[in-house]
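Can't paste images in this forum, so I'm doing it all in text. The chain is below; anyone willing to post the predicted structure tokens underneath?
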Amino acid sequence: MVKMSLDSVQVKELKESSSSNGDTRGSWGGKEVFDQDQLDLTAKPKQPKPENAVTIAVSSRVLFRTEREQKVFEQKGVEEYLRYQIEHENEPFAPGPAFSFVKALETVNARLRELYPQSEELFDIVLVTYNHAHVGIRLINTINHHNLFIERFCMTGGSSPIGYLKAWHTNLYLSADAEKVREALTEGIAAATMFMPEKMTEVSESQLRVAFDGDAVLFSDESERIFKAHGLDKFFEHEKENEDTLLDHGPLKGFLEALGKLQKKFYAKGQRLNCPIRTYLVTARSAASSGIRALKTLRAWGLEIDEALFLAGAPKGPMLEKIRPHIYFDDQMFHVEGAAEMGTIAAHVPYGIAQNYTTKLKTSMEK
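Text version of the structure:
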């Protein structure tokens, strides 16, 4: 549950007074002094410092379903959009594609707090939106309605959020805006574009499952470039010749490292077999001819992947349907489409040579 004080939000316990222009605002002067107990803040879980946490920045358009509001903005402009949001601020948004992922992060946090009550090594979720602060009331009402624990907001009023993401020490940024995702990647922030599949597979409520493609996601696109330029045979030859040469890191290596760091906290308490975080490598590489280099690279980095699926070019969608991850990251839209068609929440990482070979994603979410 969230009770916050923003420019346009009044905390319920505040005694309200009217300003000269008729606006309502809380009075903090004179005798209006409140401690944390009166504001009902002390009962909340401890908020970690950004430098100690694994910070996940999520846009409002992927955390919630906002297609209707987006149409109002596109067809009638910003003033009508703001008016619509204020008129409907007591109507909560429905869950979007990132919702189950965020709920799973909160589940992991609950387990971590049980084992390490004073630790700040937790997931810290930041809601990032281009919206004006006037929309904040509806967003907070929605968060309270869905019992989410999100205390940090970043409402930029149309400005780019990338500078704020760096200030938050963001480990992962999820958005529906592909341009902002590319901007974040350019700044060295792990990021991906999320889409709403036509159907959504039911996912675990007790274990966070995150699946990664290999090349141009965890690893660089070095090998992908060989394949695109010279074909499959040359790719196999290149991987064989370089199986003892580590692959360079890709844009989401750091996020996998952050997940691994939290996993080890559970392992240290004897919870390896009951760990609420599980990671997967789902790659089109074949195991015998090109998988060894990927595994040696992960080992050299000190990273553990719980499950590795080498599909040798087979479709990824059916495997992902069995895994049922909360999120799957891939650099190729072809695989994102295939995953989405099977009901998997897939996120596109617009990085590397594969971006020169694009397809059109069939999705109900506006871009």
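The two ends are 30 Å apart (CA to CA). The mean pLDDT is 84.
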